[in-house]
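Just curious. Invent one:
>
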Amino acid sequence: MCLSQALDVEETFVFEAVAKFIEQLPADVVQVKLDRAGDLVSTSSDFNHDRAWIPFYPPRTDFPRRIPTIRRRGLTEVDRLGLQVDLTTYPDPLRPGETRKVVFKYYVTENSVVTWWHEANCVLRMPSHPNIVPFDALVVDRIDHIDCVVGFTTRYIPGRTLHQNNNRVFKLKYLQQLINVRVLNSTPLPITVD
């Protein structure tokens, strides 16, 4: 049974089986075969056996030139905040000797490309507003001799997420402000709050 056929078996079976021997596998292994008990049968380092999905990273030229960028290697991961969201730091280009704390958002699965692309484009085009976390920079990496966008950063705002702190007051007037932002809705709705 190949890991590339993982959709035919339970995901937990694959992860538990691989956890048994992952530390002993050479870094260049691209395929493993397991028996029904989850024991390792064989491995392959042949590139032709690599069935991994490779994410699409758009070229830097797909974004306006005026947008600031940071190289991925310049980021230092501080904490994992969630799925495809890391708290990171990098040297502040405007204040030598100081560090900028930012949230790095990226994607690694095919299913999240559209969501990421939409969020990145919305966030970097949004006008400045005191209640909206501002865009910081595009994160670029060199892939096949081309600078590609592999994610973006936003300013880090300390505190928990709305899911973690669901007793935080969210007033209806905040929703009205969000709806009336021109980037989100090109024609603001005539909403009144009593």
About this structure: The radius of gyration is 22 Å.
